[in-house]
Amino acid sequence: MERIEGIDDKNLEARLREAARTASPDRPVDELELRHLMRVVTACSLLRTDVYSEDRIARIMTPDRTLLPSLVGRLIEEERRGDGEVLYRVRRLPEDVRRVGDKALFDAGLLGLRQVHGIDLAELGARAYLAASETLRLLAEDRRLREFFRQNKLLVLPVEDEVAFLRQCSDRFPQHAGILRHLQAPVEEAEGSQELRGSIAVLGAVEDAYLEAARGDEPESAALDRHELISAYERMVLFSALDVDRIRTALDATVVDQPRAVQALCDELGLFASGTRDLRKPPAFFLVGPTGVGKNHLVESLVRLLEGLWQIEVPMLTLEGPNFTYPSDIHELRGATRGFIRSDEEGILAVFHEKACRAPVSVILVDEVEKAHPHLRTFFLGILDRGTVTDNRGRVLNFSNSIVFFTSNLGYSEQQQRGAPIGFGDDEAREGLAGREVAQDLRRALSPEFVNRVRMIHFDRLSRSSASRILDLELDRIARRWSEVHGLRLALDPSAREELLRRGFSPLFGARHLAAVLENVCNVEIARKIRRDDRRGSGDRDALVRWLRELRQGPGTFDADEVRRRVHGMVRADVGYDGLRIVWNGAAFEYVAETAGEAGA
User: Fold this and answer.
1) Which of 400, 395, 389 has its CA nearest to residue 360?
2) Tens digits of per-residue pLDDT, 51-63?
3) How far apart, in whole angstroms, are the C-alpha atoms of residue 388 and residue 397?
4) Three-state SS across 171-190?
5) What is the pTM (predicted TM-score) of this model?
6) Ranges 77-86, 135-144, 375-384, 485-494: which has the least confidence
7) Across 244-367, where does the E strand assignment appear?
8) Is 25 exposed, middle or buried (0-12, 13-18, 19+ CB in 10 A)?
9) Which has the closest alpha carbon to 408: 495, 314, 515, 295?
10) Cα(433)–Cα(78) distance, rounded to whole angstroms?
């Protein structure tokens, strides 16, 4: 399969590292400073509002030392009285001041500005970071607010470390501005810089789209925080450069004989690429079809493709519908309320949100949703409408960056499929009956409110030729691993191929069991044979293990190719042959050893 290429932040990171080596050779920047500079370049490119208000500048440049403690004290007191909006005002307080410092650094470093409203930008930026540090320190002195920052993961670092880092940003403002100045010239001439500047131009359009979406009726408490907002911008930039036709080709190659489903999903991805989707609401898809036709596989394949395309992790959460058969099971998602068992534990969604909120896109898969209690679908209506849910600790979890998939076999149960007519024209009759059954089951099981919020994607039944293609894909995956680790070729005799298809495929269950059958016959059993035939000694495994542990615990980088060579050299079996042919003798599978010469003959 052709590898899909895309835009990511590697080019910007490389340019910043080079600029840092040039501008600050005596005091190299650490990873935190590098992330800070990348944030300034990307986030301030998006900023369309003027952060340099006269009141804000005055508070930073000539601070009233009694004003900030007084303001923080009032906010803390309001929070203690139970004002639900206070915490969201609190979380923005240090961030609003820090934004002034970021913008000053951006303007002084990349735009070459020296003053704003008659104030020296270098001095304004340094003081802004110092004021943000002091604000955060005062907030964190209150136990409840410290816990709020900890639970909501609003900061990149723990509070004490964030305070110290903001002070460091203040101290090193001139050096950071110098690095950005050195970044400017190389970016103009560097290979790939047009792509980088194009990304920043798209970010400006994204800002307009976000501001337009934000003018809706959403309450302020549902607004995106720093991580979520930047993730939304990054998501739209990544999707704007997405080659949907190549995605379709890649999915067609891995999700066998489901062109309608792949086309429907790619049509939706085209909307992402256009930038016209509402940033606040996650898209939702309802994948319906017979068992074993690739519904989950389509979702998993999409996640792998996006990860390979963008070189990032796409967090994925899978919820099994049969695990939510009682109304009380829904508490597992948001966490049990106070007074109930395990109310001190976080819900499943809260744990997932910690990773999802820091990624440009994430995936939630609810498998076999028809086997869950209807309350589960009702629960997700809030997420599909607003993109948010409140957990058992009162935290607002935002999933606007998620893509939500529901899978179902509605209309395709075993009993319904067995009841389909047989005989002449049975394929056409079965298709007509299945379509009617699906429509009836969907109307009976799903509320109109739910149906109106999801995009229905229908999957077709698999044929025997479809199963044969799936067998080739699965066998190739197993064979590549044996070749890589042990230098062993696998070949499948026609007799064995027919037996594997007979065991792994059926019109009722599709190819659901095919992967498991192949895993046993072509992986587990071969591993047993290799262990029996292995003639090598134990070698110096202890020395290799000690070396690997030293690498894991030691600082710095290591040569991954060298590690792989030494490990494979130790574990590779010595069996006297380099190939195995799998044969079915009518009663059992046999594994015939072959050498390269014999295989060619």
Assistant:
1) 400
2) 788 778 888 887 6
3) 5
4) HCHHHHHHHHHHHHHHHHHC
5) 0.56
6) 77-86
7) 284-288, 316-320, 362-367
8) exposed
9) 295
10) 62
